[in-house]
Amino acid sequence: MTAPAAGGPLAAALASLAELDGVASEFKGMVSVTLPKHRIVEALEAVKAAGLVMLTDIFGIDYLTYPGHRGKRFAVVYNVHDISGAARLFLRVELDDGESLPTATEVWPGANFMERETYDMFGVVFEGHPNLRKLLTPEDLEGHPHRKDFPLGESPTLFNDGRFIDPPAFRAGLMGKDPGLTGWKGGAREGVRSSHGTLPQGPEEGGEP
Amino acid sequence: MSLKTPPRPAETAEQGSFSTEYMRINVGPQHPSTHGVLRLVVDLDGEQIVSLKPQIGYLHTGFEKTFEHRTYQQGVTYSNRMDYLHGFAHDLAYVLAVEKLMDARVPIRAQRVRVILNELNRIASHLIFFGTGLLDMGALTPFFYTQREREKILDIFEMVAGVRMNYGYFRVGGLYQDVPEGFEERVRAWYDDFQARLDEYRNLWVGNDIVLARTKGIAVVSRQMALDYGLTGPSLRASGVDLDFRKATPYSSYEDYDFVVPVYQEGDLWARMMIRFDEMVESARIVRQALDMLEPGPIKDPDRRISLPPRHELENSMEAVIFHFKLVTEGFHPPKGEVYVPTESARGELGYYIVSDGGSMPYRVKVRVPSLVNLQLLEPSSIGGLFADMVINIASFDPVLGDVDK
Fold first, then answer.
1. Domain boundary among A96, A118, A147
2. Are residues A118 and A206 in the same domain?
3. Minimum-distance CB partner of B353 among A59, A167, A174
4. Are residues A166 and A126 in the same domain?
5. Interface pTM (ipTM) of the complex?
6. Are B389 and B381 in contact (CB under 8 A)?
7. Interface of A with B in 63-92 (CB under 8 A)
8. How far is the CA of B404 from the CAs of A57, B94, B332, in angstroms?
9. What residues of chain A lie within 8 A of the CB of B341, using their CB?
10. What integer pLDDT is reported at residue A197 of this predicted model?
11. pLDDT at A161
12. Are residues A102 and A194 in the same domain?
């Protein structure tokens, strides 16, 4: 199931990335290299020259609520592989809110939609992009939906007797992060206890007790 | 709309004072030829395409965000809803990624059933490709023939999963339940029937003069262009790149089967059509081989962290009841980490990049959907061609808009 360790292009790419201050790590056979932001275009050119000629994906990750995360809030991941599909590499750049990245469309024209999607979902600006507009969300939508502080936009489940289940609190209980359904240790269940039959105004993510 | 009006074409000496203007045409989003809700803003110089801008997002449903708020096992409900024509590919890609995270060991019977269903689904998807693609050329009849065959495949899916679409039949660690009695005979009967149908299709449109005239040498995607734009799947192999993740990084027992990855060098509409025909032949072969190798056995990972305990244990084991309750309400907790498993769907490379924070729900799920990236090739391959060819060109990349918009 894991990608076989290939000698050729992957080793060459890793060697050239080490010169660009890349820090490599491995998890379950997947090799990731974290790079400083200003070297990313150089790095992409280097891996392309080393034989990883296909850019498969660019996407963001928001580490805002990741437990124990140190470092910058966002990561942008570039997923590249060679022409045989066996050697695959993930290049990572870490960013804070408001930081921008140089565009990869000069190296791979196919980065166009991928960067637009990342911009749309996370608000990461790619400098030099030929047409950096939203890709998937409507033009009148404010904010970037995949940021962790963007609400899911669901409504509480209301029962006849006035009880309700507040979805974020319910889920927090399921995940063991909060005394909810499975974490019930006596006392009233979340939702029954609070505010006797009135709906909370604007449920927030994370499940306030 | 921030698109600029294109400049007026330069007047030539022959034209003299006769001035022409580009015509901007809005194609879609609600039109059968766009295969979903794809909107194209096309600028035409007479019949020739000058520029083409896809406008997408009409089906954006936020599946990736939804994944973050559901347990890992619940994710199977959502994954197949993206690519509604090849749903099993999404299910498979999703469960493979979670299984990699959990180090699950999927029994061989479950792997083979997964392959059978995945390949049947690939054929069903390609049948839709031919039906609607030929419809775009004005051939109405093939649509009914391909639908007839597809219905038979959907009948098999209904028998197995209970539904004809949005299956949710694969589970992390195996399958929801074993295939029903009579499944093998039914697939074998389908196989024999399908071989005859393939001959019928060959007679009907492979080598048909009109099809050749409409597709040969039109909307060519060169090998370099395909690589630059990240094209994957059959459309990439039609441009001369031999890349199929069923061969490159075999998953779910694909290494056991003897099949050929068809590759065409032309990169034109004809190659993109014919490669899918050859793939149907090969997929049917894989189905046949997987059926022959299918042996009775368990269909779930016995690991109690992942799979529900068997029903009979619930009646006399308190522990089993507790495990059952915890798995159903809370789900399992994979270790922290980030995984990605590339798979081959009917449209190209499909993979789920899953970030786990150690909780029972994924921290982040990024779906690498093939249709979205492949759609970028539409503009460079259509420019300079005729408008009527563009309609076939859309079909030739076989985008599913649910897959594009997520």
1. A147
2. no
3. A59
4. no
5. 0.86
6. no
7. 66-67, 77, 79, 81, 83-86, 88, 90
8. 13, 17, 30
9. 1
10. 41
11. 66
12. no
CB contact under 8 A, B366 and A134: no
Is A14 at the interface with chain B, CB within 8 A?
no
Do the beta carbons of residue A166 and residue A172 sit within 8 Å? no
Q: Which of A9-23, A70-84, B333-347, B365-379 has the lowest mean pLDDT?
A: A9-23
Looking at the domain assignment, is residue A73 inside a domain?
Answer: yes
Closest Cα in chain A to B96? A1
Question: Distance, in angstroms, between A22 CA and closest chain B CA?
Answer: 18
- Give me the residue from A28, A77, A181 closest to B329, CB to CB: A181
Residues A83 and A143 in one domain: yes
Task: Enter the pTM of the model.
Answer: 0.86
Asked if the Cβ–Cβ distance from A27 to B361 is below 8 Å, we say: no
Q: What is the pLDDT of residues A160-208, one digit of tens each?
A: 666 677 777 777 766 666 554 433 333 444 444 443 444 444 444 444 4
Structural domain contains residue A3: no
- DSSP secondary structure, B356-396, as one string: E-SSSS-SEEEEE-HHHHHGGGHHHHHTTSBHHHHHHHHHH
Strands B349-356 and B337-344 come out as antiparallel
Contact assessment for residue A130 and residue A113, using Cβ atoms and an 8 Å cutoff: no
Contact B379, B349 (CB under 8 A): no
Q: From the CA of B374, how many Å to the nearest CA of chain A?
A: 9
**Cross-chain residue pair B249–A4, CB shorter than 8 Å:** yes
**What does the pLDDT look like over B167-201, one tens digit per residue?**
889 989 889 888 999 899 999 999 999 998 888 88
Q: Which residues, in sequence order, are bridge partners of residue A61?
A: A75
CB spacing of B57 vs A108 below 8 angstroms: no
| A106 lies in the same domain as A20 | yes
Please name the residues between 91 and 150 in chain A that touch chain B, using a CB distance below 8 Å: 108-110, 112-114, 117, 133-138, 145-146, 150
Put simply, the answer to whether A175 touches B228 (Cβ < 8 Å) is no
Could you say which DSSP state residue B338 is in?
E
User: For the segment B283-320, what is each residue's pLDDT rounded down to a tens digit?
Assistant: 999 999 999 999 898 988 888 888 888 888 888 989 88
Domain B63-404 has CATH 1.10.645.10: yes
From A147, A168, A185, the end of a domain falls on A147
Contact assessment for residue A168 and residue A157, using Cβ atoms and an 8 Å cutoff:
no
Same domain membership, residue A22 and residue A124: yes
Q: Is A84 within the bounds of a domain?
A: yes
pLDDT at B50 over 50: yes
Interchain contact A205–B (C-beta under 8 A): no
What does the block give as tokens for A26?
A: 């491995």
How far apart are the C-alpha atoms of B272 and B304, rounded to whole Å?
45
Q: Which residues of B fall within a CB distance of 8 Å from A55?
A: 230
Tell whether A159 is covered by a domain: yes
Of A1, A86, A109, the CB nearest to B248: A86
pLDDT of residue A191: 47
pLDDT, one tens digit per residue, over A9-57 is: 888 888 888 888 888 888 888 899 999 988 899 999 999 988 889 999 9
Q: Which residues of B touch A1 (CB under 8 A)?
A: 96, 99-100, 251, 341
Which residues form the domain of A101? 9-147
Separation CA A32–CA A25 (nearest Å)? 5
Q: What is the pLDDT of residues A147-156, one digit of tens each?
A: 988 887 777 7
Residue A112 and residue A13 share a domain:
yes
A198/chain B closest Cα distance in angstroms = 24
